[in-house]
Amino acid sequence: MAFVLELHTISSQVYIKNYIVSIIREFDIKAVAANKKGRLIFAFDSDNSELQACLESIAARLPASCFLTKSDHYTAEGEPHDLPTCTDNYPLGLGLCPSCQKEMFDPSSRRYYYPFTSCTHCGGKYSFLNTLPYERKNTSFRFIQPCSDCESETNKVGIRENHHMNSCHKCGTAVRLMNKNNERYANDAGSFRTMFEVSAKALKDNKRVLIKTTFGYRVFYKTSATNNNSVLMVINAKKITDYLSLIEQEFNALLSIERPILHVAIKDEELKREVGNTTDVKYPDEGFSILLAKELQTLGIDYISYEDVDKDASADILMDYDLEVTHQEDMRLFINKDIQFIASGERVSFPSSFSPATETLSVAHGLIGTKVDEEMLFDKMEHFNSTKATKVMVLEGHDAEQWHSNQLLMHQDTASFMSVVAEHQLFGSGCVGVYFDEEASFLYYDGKQVIKIVPQKDFNAADLLEKMRTLREGSDRLITNLQTKMPLVYEKLEALETKGEVDLFVATAIVLGIEDETMRGVTKEALKFVGKGGIQIDTHVKDNRFDHIAFLSSIVSYQLGGVDSVMLSYSIFESLGDYFSELIKEIQGKTKAKHIILCGTHFANQSLFSRMQRNLKLTPPLLNMNYPIGKENAVVGGVYL
Question: What is the pTM of this model?
Answer without folding.
Answer: 0.94
